[in-house]
Design a protein that fits this description.
- The complex is a heterotrimer of chains A (497), B (129) and C (500).
- Chain A has 497 residues and is mainly alpha-helical.
- Chain A has one domain (3-496).
- Helix content of chain A is 75%, strand content 4%.
- Chain A has helices spanning 8-26, 31-51, 53-57, 81-108, 113-132, 136-154, 160-191, 208-226, 234-237, 243-278, 281-300, 305-325, 329-360, 371-374, 376-389, 396-410, 414-440, 456-474, 478-496, and strands spanning 3-5, 61-70, 73-79.
- In chain A, a hairpin with a 2-residue loop joins β2 (61-70) and β3.
- The mean pLDDT of chain A is 87.
- The longest helix of chain B has 31 residues, at 82-112.
- Chain B has a single domain (2-56, 73-127), classed as Helix Hairpins.
- Chain B contains 5 helices and no strands.
- Chain C has a domain at 286-445 and 453-500.
- Chain C has helices spanning 5-26, 31-56, 78-105, 110-129, 133-152, 158-187, 192-198, 206-223, 232-238, 241-266, 269-275, 278-298, 303-323, 327-358, 369-372, 374-388, 394-409, 412-437, 444-447, 464-482, 484-495; strands at residues 59-62, 73-76.
- The longest helix of chain C is centred in the last third of the chain and has 32 residues, at 327-358.
- The chains are: A mainly alpha (497), B mainly alpha (129), C mainly alpha (500).
- Chains A and C meet through β2, α6 and α7 of A and α17, α18 and α21 of C.
Chain lengths: 497, 129, 500
């Protein structure tokens, strides 16, 4: 594989970190300058990341070594197709979220906005670091930074609830970090290297018991952020955070970092071959399927809109993991592309929830009757996202579900077909009442009968993401080349495994 | 057995002294007694050092023929001066330690009006300090 | 001049400490600039020594020109030069910081304070630089004596804590002295390098074993290793801010350095690892130290007292790295000597600044501190994250190497202890951070859409002489983390004894 040495990955990570400190230095007094740092960093980050896509699509990888500690123990960036995919998702959605955030925090006149934007920029920095990391150590470093950078956002409200949510979040993620640290140390001791390799690198370096234990530890460590049951508890609690945080971090960056980690472990550390030999792929798939179904049912019971979305997120993340765990070509394609598709659809839904919160101060599903008349754009976008997540064409959700189902068939595991079907039904069951109520039910008293939308800063991003989820359903390879990247990543893995 | 004990009597004496000192430092409730124990402890070690430099029948290491320089020096005739010199330093250290300990005892006495450890602990518990 | 740097490190602060009373007698306020200026010289000298060691390898300095093993020799290799730089830079930073704190705490005792301060620094650097076991004892006592006196001028309860410290510290030093005695009986030498040559033939002698036992216990007392730490919490906690900021980072760390020196240079690893079962004992004691320190720290409501127990736990970290006795573990231990010194310095400096400004150390009373003292609290937060082990702060990297070391040694429980400890640290420090940064909002907040009434809190930052050292150490925490790879590859990997 051709390697291109370039410092661009480093700049992609640094640009938002620099912006974070500029934000801190600018402070509350010059809000417009401060916000312009965010926007500029978001655009710059996206451009840097995106400028590397063509290189990746030629089948090359981009490498940059930050520092070497010992042989085989180094901080290094290496961008392959899979990392690129995640990088593009996160950096492109940051632009949307930046605009949206400005509308949100100003609309609510939030306190501590500087801290908010600072932490946000740090989060993005570490997310890109995770996407581009070449080995487990680099991954862990950025993963831990992400953990901490998210904390100020979770507790942003500084209410009792928020502080408790923050504590719970830290308890889960820091424990996971410790387990990861140990597992990664173990792997380094056994193999002398930590580099991700398509198809895995750990095979044959230890007895199967040790390998299974390591697998369990790594999946536990990353699974916490990915919200795999029973480690999901923090995610619904963390919904006390402001909505843009829930949108970008708890639907895209943080939880996807967890899923990304799980997939890295499954596909790039252990590899399909080894997992088949160990026979744990099926167990993994069952556990994740359990999460899919249970999270679906739990979502049904939530009246709080964001909590309902959170459980839907848990459900979809588990779907991605099942896709990878089934270890067939189609299922992987489905899983990986679902990372992108789910990101765009779910961020739309969260944006809508935030827009409703800012405009109407409503947080509960039962309060949304007739809202479609007052906020047609928001609720329309919501409908698009919801329909897409249920897997109905022509939204992008359909594409991923299609591949996932194909994958279940390829793996000769019909049961997962039923899991995916059940999940789709549940999606319909917990999203469609919202759509129905908001458009067809008699409006509540406080709903204005005329067009009266949330601030444009918020509406435009959510309309764009909604439209994009349609576009990706029709042309999966549009703009961001998600599909090409996915199939390239799958090719790399299967080519070896 | 008895011969063994007697032949190394200097070590036994130092060990007995040291144990007395250690007991006083740990077991005694009165702070001054603790300090005295500490001094016994240190003296025991000084004796130990002094005794390891001694040789039977040897004299102080002052070379009488110094300057003429051609007589051979019998090492066995002179005791080893180094341990003794080391102890000069150790004595200085122990005196300094005693000084500081006494100073802090004065401070303690001024504050609590007693030098019994259990009483001080009781007073501290009552005042919550 | 250049080859005299090794001597300057000791001689300059020693002589300068004698001049402090003279200067203080003339003009009291000149003591502070004098001490700061004087402490720059050891820093420059030790940097130059480190540079020499890095370029030309280790060398020794013969004090007064006497050849070893008769004369006293200063041994300068990667390990000692490295620790020297740590000691000299931390003491300079604390000296800069001490101005306001001393003016506030002990206005009448400025002169004795600075005299003792310089003596303490002399003692600490002497311990590190010397290549003679008896000379090491003398420096150990110089530092201990000045430390006793410095602690005794602290707050209420300090004399009692000092007295306990004197008793236990003297036992430790005497045990060390006894160890030297037995070593001298068997070998007739006091020079470390000479001893290292003579000893291997005598490894089966009972005398050597006794000496080794005395050394280990004596140093364990000095390092405050569980269960011999009982003197430590009270002494460190009641000391004046500027003093605890100096002794908490350095005293235990220097003792840990001596432990590494004796276990692996004077005695060869062949003896201390293979022939006596001391490593597992030290390791398990450190595990207990980590848990005990952590749990006691959890029970404290006083910030300084909490940190003091964290010091006890941190000693456990370093000793675990020593007792796994492999390359990774020792790399971690030596790296942690540096990291922990910087982190502890920062934390204790912050506590001192908070005490100076607000007059309290109670964790519950730290509310709004992020508004009052934003830079101080930012420094505290960075260091706290480092203690928890969040990269890229330096704490992560030492933890990483320590864990690699325990994995290599197959000591799973030790690894688990290290991991649990970072979780305990997370609870400890986030409790403080929550108190300082967050205040529960009135419930109305959520309903009225975030209309908040901020009571205006005036910024009331610590004075510049305090703030600058705090910011420097906090920046050090980050930079040492980022450059830890460089530090390891250029210094620490040579500092680890070659036999590993």
């Amino acid at each position: 594989m051709d390697v291109l040495y370039s410092s661009r990955p480093l700049w992609a990570v640094l640009v938002s970190m620099i912006a974070a400190f500029l934000i801190l230095a600018t402070g509350e007094k010059n809000r417009n300058i401060r916000e312009s740092w965010t926007i500029m960093a978001a655009l710059a980050k996206f451009l840097i990341v995106f400028s590397m896509v063509p290189v990746i699509l030629q089948g090359k990888v981009i490498e940059y070594t930050i520092v070497t500690f010992y042989p085989g123990l180094l901080l290094q960036f290496r961008i392959d197709a899979f990392g690129m995919l995640f990088g593009v998702i996160a950096s492109s959605l940051w632009i949307a979220t930046s605009f949206y955030s400005i509308g949100y925090v100003r609309g609510l006149n939030e306190h501590a906005q500087t801290r908010y934007f600072f932490a946000f920029a740090m989060c993005l920095s570490s997310t890109i670091g995770i996407a581009f990391s070449a080995n487990l150590l680099t991954f862990l470093v950025f993963y831990e930074i992400l953990t901490i950078a998210t904390y100020p956002l979770v507790i942003h409200k500084e209410s009792k609830e928020g502080i408790m949510g923050g504590r719970k979040y830290l308890a889960y993620t820091l424990t996971a970090g410790c387990v990861l640290l140990f597992a990664i140390g173990m792997i380094y001791y056994m193999t002398g290297t930590l580099d991700f390799k398509a198809g895995g690198f750990i095979a044959g370096s230890g007895s199967s018991t040790v390998l299974i234990m390591l697998f369990a530890m790594l999946i536990f460590g990353f699974g916490v952020k990915a919200g795999i049951m029973p480690m999901h508890e923090w995610l619904p609690t963390a919904m006390v955070a402001p909505t843009p945080v829930s949108a970008l971090l708890h639907a895209v960056a943080v939880v996807k970092a967890g899923v990304f980690g799980c997939l890295r472990v499954i596909l790039y550390v252990f590899g399909p071959g080894l997992l088949h030999d160990l026979g744990i792929w099926l167990i993994m798939a069952y556990i994740a399927s359990f999460t899919i179904v249970v999270a679906g049912f739990l979502a049904l019971g939530q009246d709080h809109l964001k909590r309902r979305l959170a459980f839907s997120t848990i459900n979809n993340l588990a779907m991605i993991v099942v896709g990878a765990a089934l270890l067939t070509k189609s299922s992987m394609t489905g899983g990986i592309i679902h990372m992108a598709n789910h990101a765009f659809m779910k961020i739309t839904l969260f944006f809508c929830a935030g827009a409703i919160h800012v405009k109407m101060h409503k947080d509960y599903v039962s309060q949304l009757d007739g809202l479609g008349r007052q906020m047609p754009l928001t609720m329309g976008a919501f409908a698009i996202g919801a329909i897409g997540l249920s897997g109905i064409p022509p939204m992008s959700g359909f594409i991923s579900k299609w591949f996932l189902c194909l994958g279940a068939l390829e793996a000769n595991q019909i049961i997962f077909l039923f899991v995916f079907m059940t999940s789709a039904m549940l999606d319909v069951a917990f999203f469609f009442p919202i759509i129905y109520n908001s458009f067809f039910k008699k409006p509540l008293d406080d709903v204005a009968p005329h067009f009266d939308e949330a601030p444009m800063f918020m509406v435009i991003p959510l309309v764009i993401t909604a439209l994009l989820s349609i576009v990706f359903g029709i042309v999966p390879d549009a703009f961001f080349r998600f599909f090409s990247l996915t199939s390239l990543a799958v090719q790399n893995i299967m080519g070896v495994g | 057995m008895l011969d063994y004990v007697i032949s190394k009597y200097n070590f036994w004496i130092y060990i007995i002294l040291m144990m007395i000192g250690l007991y006083a430092m740990i077991g005694k409730k009165n702070l001054v007694k603790k300090l005295i124990g500490m001094n016994i402890f240190q003296s025991a070690i000084i004796l130990f050092y002094v005794s390891i430099g001694v040789k039977a029948g040897a004299t102080v290491p002052i070379l009488s023929g110094h300057g003429h320089g051609h007589e051979a020096i019998e090492v066995a005739n002179y005791i080893n001066p180094l341990p003794h010199v080391l102890m000069l330093t150790a004595i200085v250290v122990s005196i300094a330690t005693t000084g500081i300990a006494l100073a802090s005892l004065i401070l303690i006495y001024r504050k609590y009006n007693t030098l019994e450890e259990d009483e001080i602990l009781k007073i501290r518990k009552e005042t919550g300090a | 001049m250049a080859d005299q740097f090794a001597a300057l490190i000791i001689v300059v602060p020693l002589i300068a400490s004698l001049f402090v009373p003279v200067i203080g007698w003339w003009k009291k306020r000149l003591c502070y600039p004098w001490v700061v200026a004087v402490l720059v010289i050891p820093l420059i000298s030790s940097l130059s020594v480190l540079n020499t060691v890095m370029t030309t390898g280790k060398f020794s300095y013969r004090l007064g020109g006497w050849a070893p093993p008769w004369g006293i020799e200063y041994m300068l290799d990667h390990l000692s030069a490295f620790v020297l730089v740590i000691v000299s830079s931390i003491s300079l930073i604390v000296a800069i910081y001490s101005k306001k704190s001393i003016e506030d705490n002990l206005p009448e005792k400025t002169v004795p304070f600075y005299t003792l301060f310089l003596l303490l620094v002399t003692g600490l650097m002497g311990i590190v630089i010397t290549g003679d076991v008896f000379n090491l004892f003398v420096f150990l006592e110089i530092s201990a004596l000045s430390c006793y006196a410095l602690i005794a001028i602290g707050e209420e309860g300090a004399p009692m804590a000092t007295f306990n410290y004197i008793i236990i510290g003297t036992i430790g030093a005497c045990f060390y002295l006894l160890g030297i005695g037995y070593l001298y009986i068997a070998t007739g030498s006091l020079n470390m390098a000479d001893l290292a040559n003579i000893l291997p033939d005598l490894y089966h002698s009972k005398v050597i074993l006794v000496a080794f036992a005395f050394f280990t216990v004596g140093l364990a007392i000095k390092a405050g290793l569980f269960p011999l730490h009982t003197w430590l919490p009270d002494a460190y906690c009641t000391a004046p801010s500027a003093v605890s900021a100096l002794i908490a980072p350095l005293m235990t760390k220097v003792a840990a350095y001596v432990m590494i020196r004796l276990l692996f240079t004077v005695f060869q690893p062949n003896f201390s690892v293979n022939m006596v079962p001391v490593m597992p004992i030290l390791g398990w004691l450190s595990v207990m130290a980590i848990f005990w320190g952590g749990i006691k720290a959890l029970a404290q409501t006083d910030l300084k007292r909490m940190l003091v127990y964290v010091v006890v736990a941190e000693v456990g970290y370093i000793v675990i790295g020593v007792s796994v006795a492999n390359r990774m573990g020792l790399t971690g231990a030596i790296l942690h000597i540096m990291n922990d010194a910087v982190m502890m310095a920062c934390l204790f400096l912050v506590v001192g600044a908070i005490l100076y400004k607000t007059g309290t150390r109670e964790i519950q009373q730290l509310r709004h501190l992020n508004k009052k003292m934003p830079f101080t609290m930012a420094a505290f937060t960075i260091t706290a994250l480092s203690m928890v082990g969040i990269p890229p702060a330096c704490g992560f990297f030492s933890k990483w190497y320590l864990i690699l070391g325990t994995i290599e040694a197959g000591q799973w429980v030790w690894a688990a202890a290290l991991l649990c400890s970072s979780l305990i640290n997370a609870v400890l420090f986030f409790r403080v951070i929550e108190c300082a940064y967050l205040k529960p909002m009135e419930p109305a907040y959520a309903l009225n859409g975030g209309e908040t009434k901020h009571e205006e809190i005036q910024r009331d930052e610590a004075p510049l002489t305090m703030l600058v050292p705090i910011v420097i150490t906090a920046a050090g925490v980050i930079l040492l983390g980022i450059f830890s790879g460089k530090i390891i590859s250029s210094v620490i990997q040579f500092a680890v004894p070659a036999s590993f």
